[in-house]
Amino acid sequence: MDEAAAAGLTSVQDAYTSMESFPLFERAAAANRLKLRFRFAPPILPFERGAAPPKHNLERPLTEADLTTYQKLRETFRGPLLKFGAVKGVLDGTVDARTAAMFEPYVGGGTGILFWEQEDLNRTVALYDKEGFQVLLHAIGDKAINMALNAFEYAARTNRTSGRRHRIEHAEVPLLQTSPASNSLA
User: Under CATH, what is the fold of the domain 2-170?
Assistant: First the structure.
């Protein structure tokens, strides 16, 4: 923190916070040792300890009761030095590993790996949106980015919300659409 503050940083975000780290930050705040503002975003439930399974299939839909821990954290960490109010999900892998989810196959085959089914993602994002959480979704490939946008749209339409400022994290291979009339990039 000393080096960050000396370089002029005033705030940082941990965009995939381990649940075990919260007591550490509480102790630092109680000892008046924080020199930066921290914003936390733990993983979307039902992942435990931040580990995403190779394929995310909910055994049952997420419920409001499942969010009790995160609601308590949001009430506890309201700022200004420690703030909680966002969650992060992972939709696909990386381009380097050829696991970023793509519409078109990679050279040599394969279209990457999706960790979510669209319907589960839609319901989950809508529930977090309804509860007022900002949702951050790791989506690198164009197919995963499309899924994230669909989930954000579904949440806004279902909950009649706007301005939640949900985010796509990384977005390395954005969607490209071609114009059917000219067959050139639009």
Answer: TIM Barrel (3.20.20)
